[in-house]
């Protein structure tokens, strides 16, 4: 991702703000050069170079400058400066440093700048559940450099029971000002950190709320046909324009999160490649390759940015794809195959779960023999009564997925669009013509549109040349634009579809399942409400004479303990060294599957005791984690039942059908109730 600039050809903005002209935002030497160059154009109008001045980056006669500067300054704009926009864009760039290496999560970056405008810390959150960017930045700088400094964050930090560390650290470090790009859209976090900081005497300026309060037409200001901020096309270079541009970058950075909050579904992106005449394959079905090498490399990158890649049975049969990122390390998105009839080959690249996990979604009762065979290969198969693509999207959301790349053919793409599943389109157009009246097209006939006036508009479009290909990206009417998406997300007063007591998940809980039990707390993803209860929330624990980053690190490593094997010991060290619980789990599960001989023989019985020891250590009395766990006891009521809503795990969680054993929830309740006694 590149840093956004006010207009094409503008100088590249760097974090060294002391080099920049205080009004124009460009380097002082460039500002003087601008005056000298433009001065020549005024000579024929009776002006001299000495009669010119710079106002908001524009060269004007002195008389006009005095008039502009004499106008009353808008108080609502004076809070922000151009250097603030530079630093917020830098925070956005930092926040995506691990994008593609880990699964999607709320991306957060931090820049700490002293009173003398010196950047002393640039940090980012590594993955879901890991240490917050602002905590890292303040720790790196120390209290001496943090005192009186300005802290820049693209996303409002978390502030909820058990997650008070960020706000506490900011206040104790005596930071003078915090500049935030956008409030956290998650309802249980939205505005809470901002309010707490202000109550503690810290100046907090939030760009999104500032612009939303200042402009009634912020959504229209953010729309354009060429991907830039619409009202920048007027040719101006004002602070307000740069503010809107910076906000757009903040929203783009956490587009997945905004979509989950606003729609209650992952952001589903339809990707396809077609020829100049709109064909995705020849009449014979041959399609390798339509797009060029760089375009295909970009697709591999896009897969890494997603939780899953979705195809239909026809694609699995005809193309036999791998659907991987073509990398040996890093995040491996789940391959999802949707087939109502289970008309799938037994010999298929997608069934090799050593490359990446595979999930098959089918209609209840379809080919049970084939289902058993696939499960025997390690493929996860689930059955959904009355299967539809909308139900598929809902299930992906239940799994905690934030972004899904749909690489299906036109037969499946059409109903996905008509059912409102697809929000965004990525179309690669290659300079080729194949012809053929019966050759397939990106979208089939299921839309049922017969008039051009009924055609679906694609808006907020961006174009990018990729070698000889052209990539066009835009939003379908279900979303319209990034600013429409943000407006919808921030308009929600409560988590979409969840009852008050059990609204424990904002991304990843079925409203129908939650409604089945009112006095229950469901948890799953680390960024959700009650996320600390998850094993993937990194709370360091000390067990067996060693520090572990999280319960998940310890649990996965213990699979290979109680062994004299050097290889098993190396496996434990590798798991312990991982920066996130997500990575520790991926390595542990992969080794357990590929090298079962390394797993301790009594693991089936020992794993319960291992987990119990880890949980007791994590939820020690007086810790933030204990406070949150203890809060689920209720006041004058029966204690809440704790449920790990994990559709993929019927042992530790309640499973896809809600009938799982939920051992993690049971153990947490035991730890909670034992401590209460």
Could you please describe the fold and organization of this structure?
By secondary structure, the chain is of the alpha/beta class. Helices cover 35% and strands 16% of the residues. The chain has 24 helices and 20 strands. The strands form five sheets. A nine-stranded mixed β-sheet has the order 12-11-10-9-13-8-14-16-15, sandwiched between helices. Helix 5 runs parallel beside helix 6 and helix 20 packs antiparallel against helix 21. The longest helix has 16 residues. The protein is globular, with a radius of gyration of 27 Å. The two termini are 53 Å apart.
Quick structural overview:
With 677 residues, this protein is an alpha/beta fold.
List keywords for this structure.
single chain, 677 residues, alpha/beta, 5-stranded mixed β-sheet, 24 helices, 16% strand, globular, disordered N terminus
